[in-house]
Amino acid sequence: MEKFKLSLEAEILKAKNSLALWLSFLGTTGIIIAFFFILLLGTESFLPSGQEQPWRHFFKIYYEGTAFMLLPLFAIITATLVCYIEHSNNTWKHLLISTVPRYSLYLSKLSLTFLIIITAHLYFIILMLISGGILGFIRPELQLFDAPPDFIFLFKLAIKTLLSVSGMLAIQFWVSMRFKNFIVALGVGVIGFVLSSLLIDSWYYVIFIPYTYPLLYLREAFLEIWLSRVEIFSIAFFLLYTLLGLFDFQKMTIKM
Description:
Blueprint: H1 2-15, H2 19-41, H3 54-67, H4 70-89, H5 92-96, H6 102-138, H7 151-178, H8 182-199, H9 213-216, H10 220-223, H11 229-250
Helix pairs in contact: 1-6, 2-4, 2-6, 3-7, 4-6, 4-7, 4-8, 6-7, 6-11, 7-8, 7-11
């Protein structure tokens, strides 16, 4: 555990000025700005209807907009970039012959990838709440000042988002660790996402494809449950592919 902690601290230090970290913050900022202007200039279709809680409606617009494409692609790119740091600098051979256990190296990098996604998501929530306050002032018809934010619903959305992406993240991280070529690793993730989006409404067993979970978890049947089968399957696949990745990494060799 001590060596894992030291490995994770080292990874965090290396990631401070990495492209993955900068991309997460710049990308999140861009997403929030885009949705801000969509709601600012949008039509009545963006207004809450009937007895719907205004902030719930507001949160769902942001989350539904990001879940379909931006969230899966963000997870794919982040995992690929975290591993590419070592591939591009050709430092894997030095790490693998070091005294640090391989499981610590693998788990620390996987944990870093998840920490970047968690940090970016917290940043997303903060900017979303700020934009909601501004929009509530500029567009009173959004009714955002008529009730306080539904923080319980927001917390549920955040947890379900992070859990839904964990399964595909473990797969993408393993692929990115295995393939040195950035385009190959990224391509595997993009193909997985595209196939998932094509099959999501036409194949009964699509629940067994982890790349579909960021697209499924916001559906009403799953959203009302704190831990739906989407999140359960995602956690199961995260554990499975983390174990498979660890097993593969133990046998991994790098040409000197």
